[in-house]
Amino acid sequence: MIEHQNISSYIAACQDFIRRHAATSNSESSEDEFDFLARSLFRLQFTGLLTYRRFCEARGSTPDSVGSWRQIPALPVAAFKEFEVTTIAPTDRVAVFHSSGTTAQTPSRHFHNAESLALYEASLLSPFKTAVLGDVDELVATERVRPLDKLGFLILTPPPAQVPNSSLAHMFDTVRREFEANDSVFTGKLDPNGAWEIDIDATLFALRGSMCTNRPIVILGTAFSFVHLLDYFESNNIRYRLAEGSLVMETGGYKGRSRALPRQELHALITRHLGVPPSNIVCEYGMSELSSQAYDSVVTPVAGARPGSSNDEGVRRVFHFPPWVKCRIISAETGEPVADGETGIIQVFDLANAQSVMAIQTEDLAIQRGDGFELIGRTALAEPRGCSLMAR
Amino acid sequence: MNIPNYFLSDLPPEASLTPLMLTEACDTLKRNRARYLLPRSTDELIRTLDALGRQWLVPAYPWRKLALERAPEQLHFTRQTLERGLDSFFRELTGEKLESFVVSELGHRHRLDDLVMTGNEGRERRSGIARGPELLLHITAGNVPNPTLMSMVLGILARSAQFVKCAFGSALLPSLFAHSIYEADPKLGTCIELAEWPGGKADLEDAVIAEADTVTVTGSDETINTLRKRIPSDRRCLAYGNRVSFGYITREAMSGFGVSRVVEDAAADVIAWNQLGCLSPHLFYVELGGRTTPDEFASQLATELDRREQSEPRGPVPTHVSASIASRRSFYEVRAAHSPETRLWTSANSTAWTVVQETDPTFLLSCLHRFVHVKAVDNVDHALRAAEIVRGKVSTVGIAAAEDKAHQLAVTFARWGGTRICPLGRMQKPPLTWRHDGRPALADLITWTDWEQ
Lengths: 392, 453
Hints:
Structural class of chain A: alpha/beta
Number of helices of chain A: 10
Distance between the termini of chain B: 56 Å
Largest sheet of chain A: 7 strands, mixed
Strand order of the largest sheet of chain B: 9-10-11-8-7-12-13
Largest sheet of chain B: 7 strands, mixed
Shape of chain A: globular
Order of helices and strands of chain A: HHHEHEEHHEHEEEHEHEHEEEEEEE
Largest interface: A-B, 32 and 34 residues
Radius of gyration of chain A: 21 Å
CATH topology of the largest domain in chain B: Aldehyde Dehydrogenase, Chain A, domain 1
Order of helices and strands of chain B: HHHHHHEEHEHHEHEHEEHEHHEEEHEHEE
Number of domains of chain B: 2
Number of helices of chain B: 16
CATH architecture of the largest domain in chain B: 3-Layer(aba) Sandwich
Strand content of chain A: 15-25%
Helix content of chain B: 40-55%
Number of strands of chain A: 16
CATH superfamily of the largest domain in chain B: Aldehyde Dehydrogenase, Chain A, domain 1
Radius of gyration of chain B: 23 Å
Structural class of chain B: alpha/beta
Shape of chain B: globular
CATH class of the largest domain in chain B: Alpha Beta
Oligomer: heterodimer
Distance between the termini of chain A: 47 Å
Helix content of chain A: 25-40%
Number of strands of chain B: 14
């Protein structure tokens, strides 16, 4: 194999890799091909991105010294706040996605041009279909949905036009477009301070519509938007039973936008108020700095747990990335990969991150579970006692 | 060694406390106080505490041994760190120092025993007697043990029955100290109760608050605000909120032969209690213009922290702590790769210590556990402008300066709002008599009765 000399040739190869591996799980993917693409991309990014090059050089790593993707230095996400981590010239940028978080801080920025956006969209579609819509074919087979019917999406974020810097809204709009769910609706909106909230009336209208026609619905949203919705249900004592086959995808932390709930508690509330069973609830792990997402595709019973216990205790939600992404859980103490069952910081190597940096060190903690991970959440970088680390 | 079940904190973890149990415990405490503690004299109590202080300094003292055995696992302090911390506390607990403490706070060592007059009172023919609270409730923070031990000493001097509510998981040392009191003087021991539960259990807290006439609260501003609302307005509430501390090093201190001593002192302040107390430095301001530059100081501090790590290791920390240190290091690593204005020194293959040097003087809070900032400043005014964001929240300023300049610096820091100025190297070793957050700790507990003849 010959290394890619420019980013367009790399992107074409990456698109091809994604096409070929769209239906496979990560463990089946070709390690050699991943490694080759990762090192090719590292060379391009090392050469084309001074911010990243300086960081690598300070660590003593260069494309010639790196023998495997595992040795590629992972850039801390904090760099996306301080620098423009992109190889895209300002005039070519068509979109920029910001990290969510408190407005007092500079957000992370992930710049896109048409080419990188196309790669981002290619990367997100098939894992979404597998993880979230996986059962649709079965619904068709069991005649609960007619073959030409599309599921309606109820999306709890504001529409992309209102939040052009949200990668999540863009992703939801992409899956809505791709899976032709024409009666889909965004029911999120911005409050006067620019914070996200949901239009309760529009949300209830969509849910009722789905129940009246007995047609399954797909609800997509952030964890905090679900909390807002469920709090409303709770205080008004509303319990819906959505059509069988309805699906829920929730993502993201809370970042102070609602009270924070343990994941199992959130799912129990979703089941109680919407009638969607835990098996139809999927979590997504993604961030604006990446182009690919992980889903908790597997629910593993924990040995010794009581089966079927009401609050979902004894199940483990394990996340996996698609084959064009590798992740490592590294010890916060030593920086070395942790053993199975141990906790560490998530590093992500995303081949679809062509025009920023492929290798990223997040600020999230997870437990290594086989070739996947169990998400713990954000590290306590949260500045103690209200003073900003970023204060300058 | 088995610990007897004298206190609620000795109950097995599965035992759950109820408000009724706590109310009854408070009743018992008050009865015991009336019988056993109120009749004691200050001299007698000081003798007991003095003997206790001596014992705790003896390596073979069973309670000390037990503390050193159990603390590394339960409190995340290594044996060495703990030894140093306990020694610095118990060395202060002497009869002489306790006596001068009572005198400096109340004007006379027998103020708590009888109506006495001092100085000007004589001219007015007025005498006064000091009374402590009947039941003193301490709601303590869990970061370092010494403030809780000191609170217990104050309660004894004030002849108060005491209920010590420890932050969850931090009862070990207060409990061992209470047991040592019980062993030395069982009747005195029955005037103390300890318990621990996770904060926010309002029914338990309210049960004790209802019985206490004075409450001390140590913790975050949020904890204090929540608790204050629940304490009836006729009870006294002494709140010790979060405070931060820093070091200030003059160019003269960076020029003479004493530089290595300054570096050692700075490291000692970072290492003490793994930097977790309010008196521990988040950063060191270093004046530009000395023979040793702030950059060189930071480098030497890193070397010293590394050396001290061998003899006095920080020890393991919970994963979320190491992750938070790792994330901060990453942030500075990126900066350092791009600009000579940021430099970073870290322990190899661990998060044991971190030094971040920046030319930007803005005050930054450290994530602690031996993670310290070094910042260059032109002079003290420059430093104080940069520290404006923590003004009013500063406890201790540790200074390294020649004597003639130190006085002027102390006045400057005092006027700015710092409540304690001490030499570098002693930041975590306040004397027994120190005024906690600028307040007289014993006098604040007291209610006076004046007799005008």
